[in-house]
Amino acid sequence: MRQYEDGRAFAQKKDQEDPLKDFQQRFYKQEGVIYMDGNSLGLCSKDAEKALMNALEVWKKAGIDMWEKYDYFLYQDKLGAMCAPLVNADPEEVTICMSTTMNVHQAIATFYKPTPERNKIIMDDLNFPTDRYAVYSNIRVHGYDPDECLKVVKSRDGEYIYEDDVIEAMTDDVCLVLLPSALYRSAQLIDMKKIADAAHERGIYVGFDLCHSIGAVPHDFKEIQPDFAVWCTYKYLNGGPGAIAGLYINKKHFSMEPGLAGWHGNRKDTQFNLEQYFEHAEYAGGWQTGTQPVLSMAPLEGSLEMIKEAGLENLRKKSLDITEYLMYLIDTRLSKYGFSVGNYREDSKRTGHVALVHEDAIRINAAMKARNIIPDFRFPDVIRLAPVPLYISYTEVYDMVDIIVDIMEKKEYENFANKRGTVA
């Protein structure tokens, strides 16, 4: 059991003992700012910048020769192979393409094969809504009614997904399940293997959205065996704002044709024959569509190299420790002001951020920003705090809590309107 103490000296001691402490120097951290929003947009690193500038230099001097001479034509294969260890998948099972939402479209278009008898898709009611928007539109494309074919498993408490409830909903008319690996508000990490095993026992395809866990939590797809997965790369992977996304296709499905075909999904040995018929490349790259944006992809290369250097297991170890330390400080220093922890405390059930709950969260969040803390508000009462292990120190966590105490003592939050911004 981890043990913590109050006081800044304890936080400083933890920083001195932190084997990852030197990685902070490789990020562009702003003086006097405590950045706790890496679960929404990771900070820019010098490693990402270097990879981007290298791609620009190659473009400047090589022009179109950058594709073949410098191997950027198959850059997505290289980056996919670099991402594969994050989910313990084979390199050919992972590719980098499009956006998370478009990859959801691609996966649903591939795996949703409705019949009059079996046409329902299971989702939850707490996931980030873009997944449901994509599922709705795919159901409509097939001529079915989304309100009838989308089977939403409602949370018992509005905070967590209960796996047994999802499994109970796996009736004979269900053909596909799409769930998040982690909830964006409460930081819950769901039992993906339990869900996948139950779905496959019933002949149901299952996929996961890893946006809020990839790079923060090691996943084992060789054990879980999902049929597909999607994720963004701009949170814990620090790939940059709106960066390219990830797509996993289980190798047992490589013979399936993609729901959305494009010339970059064609076999590489015949791609430039430019024939008017599609020859599907039987690996994850076969689900590519158009030419991928190299300058959006390049920062990810630098970030993934750094994560490999640090070791994902080491990042997870520090993440669990520093978030538990934050929860300890909430319990001991903030609870008397009406704050509580809105996430599971068990290591196996939580990801990389802490859900700080308060009835005045909107105004407190604004007051924190005015004091150079960058948190993240989620309606109606959650302030998300992500002490990302690559670049956040224990001392910053302590100092942040100190500032929150001062905000509450002085009632500074009362100076702000109870109204969230466009980007909460």
From TrEMBL:
Pyridoxal 5'-phosphate binds at residues 100-101, 128-131, 209, 212, 234, 263, 291. The keyword NADP does not apply. Its cofactor is pyridoxal 5'-phosphate. It comes from the Bacteria. It catalyses: 3-hydroxy-L-kynurenine + H2O = 3-hydroxyanthranilate + L-alanine + H(+); L-kynurenine + H2O = anthranilate + L-alanine + H(+). Gene3D superfamilies: Aspartate Aminotransferase, domain 1, Type I PLP-dependent aspartate aminotransferase-like (Major domain). Catalyzes the cleavage of L-kynurenine (L-Kyn) and L-3-hydroxykynurenine (L-3OHKyn) into anthranilic acid (AA) and 3-hydroxyanthranilic acid (3-OHAA), respectively. Homodimer. Belongs to the kynureninase family. This is Kynureninase. It comes from Claveliimonas bilis.
